From TrEMBL:
The keyword Cytoplasm does not apply. It comes from Vagococcus elongatus. Substrate binds at K236. The keyword Cell wall biogenesis/degradation applies. Keywords: Cell shape, Cell wall biogenesis/degradation, Hydrolase, Peptidoglycan synthesis, Signal. This is Peptidase S11 D-alanyl-D-alanine carboxypeptidase A N-terminal domain-containing protein. GO terms for biological process: cell wall organization; peptidoglycan biosynthetic process; proteolysis; regulation of cell shape. Belongs to the peptidase S11 family. Residues 32-256 form the Peptidase S11 D-alanyl-D-alanine carboxypeptidase A N-terminal domain. It comes from the Bacteria.
Length: 292
């Protein structure tokens, strides 16, 4: 009976999200001058779409993939204090590939909770892969879990082929689907807490008894998160050559929360953070509309 109630609540919640996002867009905020190729801006409370640009176009999403990875881990975990051993082989491979890592040492034992932060803040591919193995025993089985969740949420233009965000042919989504995913995931208190955290020191580990500093890529960019009329409260960045600069974020304006997904902005991690700069500009234009 409990499972039936949970399933009905999930179904009603997802149906509400889909109705909100597929409703009419007022295009209240101008998106002129943005290099981001796919954009959607919504009111977090109502789900109303305030602006969009090619939001239903299939795109590469880089590390925004980890939004689904995090959600599936959270929904599948009973004890977040369980520890996972980080594979030295995996860390060496990821280093050779130039992938972002969390900062934990090889062969260290790290809690699931800290690995979630390590995946979402510094965008650690090592943490994402370790969590996938913890939950499902293999990355392939965990990817099946991700795709089942995408189907459950009605993400009809989304498919995952890995847990990290590699530019694989089978790993894609749309700005609209990502917004549906993000809005649903933020119903989880733990996901919301992680998403809105800028810095965290992990619990002590065997090889790092003082803990590991986990810092969001949002603040590593050096760009302030404030804008005229409000502040960005949190977010998840992503980048690959094919995906460009991507960002899913939340901001507060006059006590209300808004969500924005903007993908395929010009630049790279070595240039100015166009995805964050453009997000701030979009939020600032919204604040001006709200009369701040």
């Amino acid at each position: 009976m409990k499972k039936l109630v949970v399933a009905l609540i999930t179904l009603l919640g997802v149906t509400g999200l889909l109705l909100a996002f597929h409703g009419r867009s007022k295009n209240e905020v101008s998106l002129s001058g943005m290099t981001s190729d796919a954009i959607i801006l919504t009111d977090f409370e109502t789900g109303e779409v305030l602006a969009e640009k090619k939001s239903d176009k299939k795109i590469q999403i880089a590390s925004l993939t980890k939004l689904m990875t995090a959600l599936c881990v959270i929904e599948s975990t009973a004890n977040f204090n369980d520890t996972v051993i980080l594979s030295e082989e995996n860390l060496n491979r990821l280093a050779m590939e130039g992938m972002a890592v969390s900062g934990f040492s090889a062969n260290d034992a790290v809690t699931v909770n800290d690995l979630l932060y390590g995946m979402m803040l510094p965008s650690g591919a090592d943490a994402a892969e370790a969590l996938a193995y913890y939950v499902s025993g293999s990355q392939d089985d965990f990817v099946m879990l991700m795709n089942n969740k995408a189907k459950e949420l009605g993400l009809t233009k989304t498919h995952f082929s890995n847990v990290v965000g590699y530019d694989n042919k089978g790993n894609y989504s749309t700005a609209q689907d990502l917004m549906t995913l993000l809005t649903f995931a933020l119903q989880s208190p733990l996901f919301k807490e992680i998403f809105m955290t800028q810095q965290k020191i992990s619990q002590p580990t065997i090889f790092c008894p003082e803990g590991v500093l986990l810092e969001s890529t949002l603040i590593k960019s050096g760009e302030h998160l404030g804008f005229d009329g409000g502040n960005i409260l949190g977010g998840k960045t992503g980048y690959t050559n094919k995906a460009g600069l991507c960002l899913a974020s939340m901001a507060e304006i006059q006590g209300r929360w808004y969500l924005l997904v903007n993908c395929h902005a010009d630049g790279s991690p070595t240039t100015e953070p166009a995805h964050l700069i453009e997000a701030k500009e979009i939020y600032q234009r919204l604040a001006a509309k709200e009369g701040v």
